[in-house]
Design goal:
It contains 9 helices and 15 strands. By secondary structure, it is an alpha+beta fold.
Length: 422
């Protein structure tokens, strides 16, 4: 393989049906806690900052899905975009709630045109890396979707619309969609939709994938990788394969954390690593906001000599997002008594039954084959004017598209694990 760092994800699936189990949504607090200035009421693409809207949602969702003792990875852009396809057909209170939580503009044309530009930027070709996002709609054969909705999905979101026979061939339909997802994610996301989820009541499935594979600008030498101690949040210590490098990096710090930028070849994407001062990351996570993260980045400077130690890690996560989104304020969309997706179809009471999300990450030195090499590290601890970014306890990472400022992937490494990829 020619790639050094692989982020292979994301697959997200929204399953919509004509009816589902009845839940009393009146007991759920539908008040949104998200407020991004000048987003909801934006009247033009120029007024709407889609990356800011996405990133604010990312931090709010992270606060819902983080787990104190587990690794985390998700792709906020994938969720944001797949739900935007749903939002294009939402009306009434359903639309308002989705706007509040995802920071979508009430003017759908603004979101459509902004999404079209964002997708075009992400999918623009660069021979230094692989990056692609895709959308698809899988609809019950002969189910009447509104023509305008189909046109919007195809034109603004690049969504492929494919008829399938959910009613008579639920297992085959599940396999068809899962196989498509697997192909789009280079076989890293498998069985996104669980067996038995699709049935006679299923009318529409919306899928989004994001795939990234890129090389570090400043490569890690596999011969410099060795086993080092890593302290978990609970104080336990484990030995992990740790990469080492010294070079020129963008670096910043304050009393709470250090931040490091690791650029990818092609100059369009980078990873930001945020390393809290304390081993226990929970308190830091509780105070983590988009504003603080932005301030950390703003205060970064180019440093000629930064000593970098980062564990190799690879893992995948699976999540069902219905419950966290309800808690965030998207309530009506999940209940057939209240959901209003009349912009999608005028036939039946369409509601979202579940949202499935899977993500995979693999961070290493020189690709799958060469990642097995380990060796002794020769360090000069007495080097003058050398800054240190030593990720020997839990940290956060962000993969950003530097052209747009959009966070594509966000995660936490609580306990590094590495499995050589075949």
């Amino acid at each position: 393989m020619r790639k050094l760092v692989t982020f292979l994800a994301v697959a997200l699936c929204i399953v919509s049906s004509l009816f589902m189990g009845c839940v009393d949504s009146s007991t759920v607090n539908a008040e949104t806690t998200i407020n991004v200035e000048n987003t909801i009421n934006a009247g033009s693409v120029e007024d709407y900052e889609i990356a800011t809207a996405n990133n604010a949602f990312a931090f709010d969702l992270y606060s819902m899905v983080k787990n104190e003792d587990q690794n985390v990875i998700f792709a906020p852009y994938s969720i944001f975009t797949a739900m935007a396809v749903c939002y294009d057909g939402a009306e009434g209170p359903t639309k308002k709630q989705m706007s509040n939580v995802f920071n979508y503009p009430l003017n759908k044309l603004v979101l459509e045109e902004s999404s079209q530009v964002m997708i075009g930027t992400i999918n623009s070709y660069n021979d230094a890396y692989d990056l692609e996002t895709t959308n698809a709609l899988w609809v019950l054969e002969d189910y009447p979707l509104n023509e305008q909705y189909v046109s919007n999905v195809e034109n603004y979101y690049g969504g492929m619309v494919t008829p399938v026979d959910f009613a008579n061939e639920p297992e085959e339909s599940t396999d068809t969609i899962n196989n498509w997802v697997e192909e789009k994610t280079n076989e890293k996301i498998k069985e996104l939709i669980p067996k038995g989820e699709i049935g006679p009541e299923t009318r529409l499935v919306i899928t989004n994938t994001v795939y990234f594979n890129g090389k570090w600008v400043n490569e890690f030498d596999a011969d410099m990788t060795r086993t080092r101690p890593f302290t978990l949040s609970n104080g336990d210590e484990k030995s992990v394969k740790t990469m080492y490098n010294v070079g020129k990096f963008n670096y910043g710090e304050d009393e709470k954390a250090k931040i490091l930028e690791l650029p990818y070849k092609g100059d369009n994407l980078c990873m930001y690593m945020v390393l809290p001062e304390e081993n226990n990351i929970a308190e830091f996570e509780n105070d983590l906001t988009l504003m603080y993260y932005s301030e950390l980045k703003k205060n970064m400077n180019s440093a000629d000599s930064v000593e970098v130690s980062i564990p190799k890690f690879t893992y995948n996560t699976e999540a069902e997002l219905k419950s966290p989104l309800i808690e965030m304020g998207v309530v009506d969309a999940f209940f057939h008594e209240t959901a209003n997706f009349s912009g999608i179809t005028s036939n039946g009471n369409l509601a979202i039954s579940e949202i499935y999300h899977q993500a995979f990450v693999d961070v290493h030195e020189k690709g799958t084959e060469a990642a097995a090499a380990t060796g002794a590290v020769m360090e000069d601890e007495g080097m003058e004017n050398t800054l240190e970014f030593k990720a020997n306890h839990p940290f956060l990472f962000f993969i950003e598209d530097k052209r747009t400022g959009c966070i594509l992937f966000m995660g936490k490494v609580e306990s590094p694990e590495y499995e050589e990829m075949s």
